[in-house]
Structure formats: structure tokens, C-alpha cells
Amino acid sequence: MAQTIQEPSARLSPSTEDYLKAIYKLEEGDPVPTKALAGELEIAAASVTGMTKRLAERGLIEREPYKGATLTDAGTKVALEVIRHHRLLELYLKEEIGHSWEELHEEAERLEHHISEAFEDRLDELLDHPTRDPHGHPIPTRSGEVEETATQRLADLEDGDRAVVGHLSDKNPALLEHLEECGLMPGASLEVTEAQEVTEAQEVAEAQAFEEPIAVRVEGGEPQLVGRVVARSVFVFLAAS
Amino acid sequence: MAQTIQEPSARLSPSTEDYLKAIYKLEEGDPVPTKALAGELEIAAASVTGMTKRLAERGLIEREPYKGATLTDAGTKVALEVIRHHRLLELYLKEEIGHSWEELHEEAERLEHHISEAFEDRLDELLDHPTRDPHGHPIPTRSGEVEETATQRLADLEDGDRAVVGHLSDKNPALLEHLEECGLMPGASLEVTEAQEVTEAQEVAEAQAFEEPIAVRVEGGEPQLVGRVVARSVFVFLAAS
DNA sequence: TCCCTATTTTAGGCAAGACTAATTTGTTTC
DNA sequence: GAAACAAATTAGTCTTGCCTAAAATAGGGA
Ligand SMILES: [Mn+2]
Ligand SMILES: [Mn+2]
Ligand SMILES: [Mn+2]
Ligand SMILES: [Mn+2]
Hints:
The structure is a homodimer. Helices cover about 45% and strands about 15% of the residues of chain A.
């Protein structure tokens, strides 16, 4: 019970930060169950029980046995700081260092725990105070504000819909390569067209790779077919019709 | 005894890497005593005994009880890799990110353990395959070659000696600031002059800060007085007279 | 209401890396 | 050669984070 408040200078462990980040990602109003957290972190459930107890003692989360974990304000603050590090790093590694989609995530996943606040600030300046990472995820501000995120999937749009790409799933690097070639990058405007407008050769190729394609025209380009699996990993802001 | 050889892919812990680096730094032919290592790492001697045993089991060092530790070839390779990371990072942070002398060392000390080989290669390219870090320390090549290091101190030169600055002690950031103002940076050519050539006002100022100054003229500049303490932290290559 | 099952927690272990206190060893000195 | 002292090692603990196996619990379905 005696929730130990320690000096803020003490660096939290990478493990601690990853737990808080994972809870932040999974919580949507209600508490995150042990098993969900275990899945996200690829760790045994029993280990999560132990760790979350310690996090609760430190005042970073609230824990309801058999229910799940919720971030406290302190915990949320840490999570957002780590996410800010992660996303600034990803953008930096992509833009300035030239890392591939493949390398981006892993490198940022490690470095996010080890850069100083001064480094964070330098990156922010150097990148001209960016608001989105290369996947289109919002970069939290230093004070913890987060921009809105798209919830609609490209795969769920209908003929004639116009939209702007918000963000892309970052699960699969190969898919990101593909999307880059298609011009389906965050910020791109697009329109869902009729399937007929697409050439047959392309149709065959796409159909082999990914079933049930959707026809899309990215602004300034030709109409093209995009596989449903692919289109499901593209999140868009639907334009008011 | 059964010295476990493990797959090279397994990342070594920061702690392990710091031990190897410290042994590399302290060994000069003969084994590094427990106490010396404990001092360098700011860790209790008993802890060092325990850790060095484990390092020996892993084949990274050789350990002679009551004598000390020596790096094996495998251990040396790791030490040089970490040092390469450290020095590339220091240069990068100074040149591209704009870190201060103060921030340089600490940041590099952490990040050296966490960057990927791909990142290392990118830094190397971006910096145009540098051979020296901001302090003038040689950057080991990927294959583990290390350039020669200066051993003579500016403080020990005599009137009329000419020399080129090799490297600077990296203990004290404030001192590095001072040296930068004096133009005493790695690569600078200099000449030790007669004390009389220096103005009296400067003499007084310098004498207050650091006793028993030495008179130095850096190429392209005016003669100036440099405190003995300061001059002791500047290592030079003496020019053949 | 009772039982089944998935989830969660408890119990017990382990490795890494640190600590302090006690003991041993090596070395120097008289 | 014994005593004294410094250095090193051993012994015993601690914390963090992970594991597996066993026990407990919550909640839905019969
Ligand atoms: Mn991480
Ligand atoms: Mn991202
Ligand atoms: Mn280090
Ligand atoms: Mn250096």
C-alpha cells in the first residue's frame, strides 16, 4: 500500500517502460487483462502478474486483481514520453540515417529507452517539430498531447469515397515497402474508383498476391488495384462527401 | 572449465561490455588487478571478482586468481567494437546533433551498447569514415585496427618545441570548453614559446586559474599562457626537431 | 445452482549484477 | 620467520525480471 514515490531523476528500466507503453496501447477505457498484456509483450502471464504488482507499488499503474491494469497519470506520462522517443527516432532514422522499414522499428524499440531528454529535443528541432512518424502515427508533444488517429480502413471504403491516408500498420516491413511503391503513404489523398478502370494485367498480378482487390487512385497517379489484406492495413480519414 | 561458446548473435549486456572496455583500457601487457577494475568501474571489488569469473567462463577474458584479468581475442574484439561505437557516437553527437562536451560522454556511454551494426555503418559513412573522435582518440576500424596514440603531454614540452595535438583528456568537460577556446584541439600545430612574449594581463588571469603556466603559440594565433594542469591533459605528437 | 474452463494468481526457481561483512592470501617489513 | 597490511576471495543477501507448474478464481452454460 505504501506507494513509494521516488525522485523523478531515477531512470526507469527498459522493461518497465515497455510495460507502460503496452498498457497505454491496449487500454481503451477499461483495464488491460493480464493475458492481453502478456500477449503484447510476449511474456508468460505469471511474469506479468508479478511485474504489474511492482508497477502498482510504484504508483505507475492501478491494478485490480483478476481485472487488469490501468495507467495512473504518472504512468501515462511515462508511456507518452517513451512513445515520443520512439516516434521521433523512427522519423529520424528514416529521414536522416536512411534506415529501411525493416530496421526502423527494432532500432527505435531499443534506443527509445536510452536517449537523453537533450537528445530528444535536438531531434525535435532537427526534424522541425514533426507531428507524425513515418507510419503516420502521431508524435506526442513534450507536454503529452496526442493528435487524433484515423480509425477507418481503406479496405472498408466504397466506390467514389475520397480520403486521406492517416497511418499504416507497422507490423510488416515488406508491406510498407509495397505501400511506398503504391504511393500510399501518410498524407496522400486518394479516391476509390471502379474496378473496371484498371488494366487486366495488373489485376491478375494483384489478385495472385492478395485476394479481392480494391481499386484506388492516389492523387496525381493512375488508378491501381490494392489487395484487401494490404488495404486493411491502411487507415484513412474519410473526406466529408 | 567447460568454456561455453555461444552463438555470436546473442547481445552482450551493457555491463559485460563495460567490463571488457575497462579491461582493455587498463591492461598494458600485464593482467588488470581486481581493485584497479573496481576503481575504473566504480564497483565493489567483491562484485568484480564475481563478474570476472563469469566473463572467464564465457571465454571473454582469462583470469588468474590474485593476479588479474586479461582479454582473450574474443574479448578484445568485443571491447574494440564497443569503443568504435562509443567514438563514432561521440563524433556524431558533436558534429551533427550539437551536443555539448558535457553531454557527449554520458550519452555515448549509454548508446554504445544499443545501436545496431547497420547504425554503426551509417554513422561511419555519414561522417566520411573518420579516424578520430572529438577528443582525438582513434576510432578502431571495423576489423579492429587502432591508430597510434600520443603519449607526450604538452605540460612536459620545452621552449622551442613544436608539436601537433593528438588527443585530450576527456575527464573534465569544462576543461574541454576551455581548450576549445584556446584552439588546442586535436590536429592543431603548436610551438612552445618564451613566457615573456605574453602580455601581463593574460599572465595574471591564467596564473589565478591554474598555477605555473606554459607559453604556447597555436599555428595562426597569438602566443598565450596555458595552465600546467590544463597542459597536462593535452597529449601531443612532438615534431622531429 | 453447480460445474467447467479459461484466466489469473501463487509458489518456487533461476541468472545477472550488485552489495556488505568475514575470511583468506600474498607481500612487505622488521 | 613472524607480524602486519593490503588485496582478493568467499559467504550470504538483495532486486529485477523472467520461467514452469500448481492452485485458485470468476463467469458462463447446462
Ligand atoms: Mn522498447
Ligand atoms: Mn511508428
Ligand atoms: Mn557504457
Ligand atoms: Mn572520446
